[in-house]
Amino acid sequence: MPFANEETTAEVALLDTIATAEADVAEQIRLLTLRKDELQVELGGVRESLEALYESKSTLAGLRTEAEADAVEAEAEAAEVEAEAAEAGQEQDWPEPSGGDGVPLAADAAAPAATEQPDIVLRCQVFIKGLPVGAVDEPMVVSAVEAAFRAVPAYDAASGPACSRVQLYAGGSYAFLTLREPSLAATATLLPALPLAGCRIPMRRPHGCAHLGSAGAMEVPPADASTLVADADADADADADADAPPATPPIPLATPAPSGCVECEPAERAAPPPPRASLETKLYWALRQARGPKPNNKEVQESLAFFKQAQKLLRRRRVVIDVCGGHGLVGALFVAFGHADEAVVLDKFEPASHRRLCDILAPFWAQRGRTAAGGERAAGADAGAGADADADAGGERIRYVLGDFRDTLPGLLAGLRAPEEAMVVACHACSHLSDSAIDACIEARCDFAVMACCHKDHLTANQMALVAKTLKINVHEAVDVARLGGIVARGFDCRWRTIDAAITPENRILIGLARGGASRTGVLGGGLAVRAARAKRADGNLSQNYAKIHGCKKDPYAAPPADGGGGGGGGGATGAQEPV
Prior knowledge:
Elements: H1 2-91, H2 120-123, E1 125-129, H3 138-149, E2 163-169, E3 174-179, H4 182-188, E4 194-196, E5 199-201, H5 229-241, H6 279-289, H7 297-310, E6 317-323, H8 329-336, E7 340-347, H9 352-361, H10 389-397, E8 398-402, H11 405-414, E9 422-430, H12 432-444, E10 448-453, H13 463-471, H14 475-489, E11 492-498, E12 508-514, H15 524-549
Helix pairs in contact: 1-15, 3-5, 6-7, 7-8, 9-10, 11-12, 13-14
């Protein structure tokens, strides 16, 4: 029996040792987890700061380069204009002013003023727009223009290239071409559209010179419709890449579009951007070159910019709900980039541009599986009547729900299995509608991103206007700052983001993240716990320092720490004051 007692005691001691070791390991794991969360939150802040710094440096460098280039071009153009004007003034043989019978006029009847002489530079210029950004350079344009003029029998190629200067602007989206002589500029307006980077770009007179028209133009033969535009484009690209380009043979071009505008051409005739272009570029040009009705260029740009900022913090979800969506492009972008399986657009009326948008973006839908719950379509949206396969695929990934979103949104959010399944976006929801969307999301604990517009101060008796005036900021900015504070006060984490003000002045995005949920990096919940722990430690340090000022070692009114460990607080509210 003594031997059995000793064995039992040893087992108990061993079990105690194991339990103690397990507790120590669990405590170490807890501390390491907290430290990992702290480091991840700090890393996220550093990453955001680096991104902002990189964007600022890139923007500054671009502005500096553009300003320097504009200054150089302005000086060169001014010098060229002066030289050509002086040369034109010397070469022009102006007749002596005379009356109807050849009798010289009186001395006070002056000769034609120099300002009345034709502006040679403007008469030699043409304008092209709608170029794919970054896909066209000056040699390509010069080669395409030269190839177009070689199809004109009266063109004299021995006198030099037709285009003497190309000035690209706005990232290469449009350009001014200075031709060799005015007759070439007049002829250019009659030539077929230039094949550049898969697009057909017509040449026009610059703004303010449309009255010049095609007066003095050479005779242009009818185009040969059997010749492919792609052949001309390939020849132009080959000439642009060669160090010493050979003489370009005459090539007939295809008949230009009746509208003369790339944006109005049928979608099936508009070639896609270069193969190496990003998905964003392909989407932009697919929308730009498609037939209407469709979102205008400003709406496309602000939707893309809004999506790029919001998707950094809103992780991938099953469904994205586009509030006050109109054409529904914002929700469609989340689906096209694979950040959502399905988009639901909420609005009172469905514009014709929405169905056209689905047809345009159908080839770009991310090839991801969809859940069974996302398969239904809203009432009134006929999925298969007269639509092709691509349109059907697009309709399955985005659906339209008609009605006031203040009635439909709460029901949609309440029907989710969990708030983490969805995210709500609202790009330029007007005035108080942004507040209504925020209220519904906070009530349902659903993440959201809102870029408000048409700000109105209905609740503070015009105090926001007074605040804005005192702080010397716009009242719209003050209202958005107040919204941020209200979102945080109601238990959400809120992030402030902006898009380029050149796209829209109402460029402030409020991104609300439900506390305790997981962000894209998976550390949102831990990060909030770390912030709360830091705030508690700071309060304890403040209490302890204040007690020391008054001659006490500890604050007698500080609450004891929850884990029983040390901290800034004292040992309970006993009222005993220990002198330092």
